[in-house]
Design a protein that fits this description.
Helix content is 12%, strand content 46%. It is mainly beta.
């Protein structure tokens, strides 16, 4: 009986050690949410391109006034992060949230990075991934194409951990995608305005949880 008890004790201890080794570390829980926008001015951001960005009624208001694309870019770069924000489309030109972005000098030409799509026109894949010179990389299943509120405020949560991207729109997970070959793995976050003067977007309540911070 003593021998059996000893064997069982060893097995239980070994199982506990293995489970502890395999249990994922709660890295995300150690990072705090930080505000990216103070609701008053564009501190912490810089403009790329000639489009108009200003703060109106506590929100970032972007207006396309030229034929080019325009961006509002964080001064800080991010690798692994969660980003929470609200957006409202006020024109049919598409927009998006770029991640791991790199521009060609001071021009709005993007040479690395990809966007999480925002477009109030139905079936234009809001929440999908576009960029890296490849066009569409992934987009939501058809049943999620109507989750966007075309003329109201929308909630978006973007989770970027390594090459794994998860996008939630208005409380619904619309994309869960592992990207086999991202063109870049670190860079600023950028809000986009569509070219041709069609861009007209509002953003507010922007918060980031930097998972790469030590």
């Amino acid at each position: 009986m003593r021998h059996i008890t000893t064997v069982l004790s060893i097995l239980l201890f070994t199982t506990s050690v293995v489970e502890a080794q395999e249990r994922p570390r709660p890295r995300a829980l150690a990072a705090e949410w930080q505000s990216l926008f103070n609701g008053t001015d564009l501190s912490g951001w810089k403009k790329v391109g000639q489009e108009k960005w200003e703060v109106v009624d506590g929100a970032i208001f972007g207006q396309g006034i030229t034929e080019e694309y325009g961006y509002l870019v964080t001064e800080k770069s991010y690798r692994d992060f969660h980003l929470s924000l609200q957006f409202k489309c006020e024109a049919d030109g598409n927009s998006g949230v770029y991640i791991h972005t790199e521009f060609k000098g001071d021009t709005p030409e993007i040479i690395a990075g990809r966007q999480v799509e925002i477009d109030r026109t139905l079936n234009h894949h809001t929440g999908g991934i576009y960029g890296d010179g490849k066009g569409w990389v992934a987009w939501p299943s058809p049943q999620f194409e109507t989750v966007i509120r075309p003329y109201e405020w929308n909630d978006m949560l973007i989770e970027v951990e390594g090459n794994h991207y998860v996008v939630h729109l208005n409380g619904i997970q619309v994309l869960d995608f592992t990207y086999p070959s991202p063109g870049s793995e670190e860079g600023p976050i950028a809000l986009q305005l569509h070219s041709g003067g069609q861009g007209k977007m509002r953003f507010k309540n922007l918060f980031v949880r930097d998972l790469s911070a030590r």
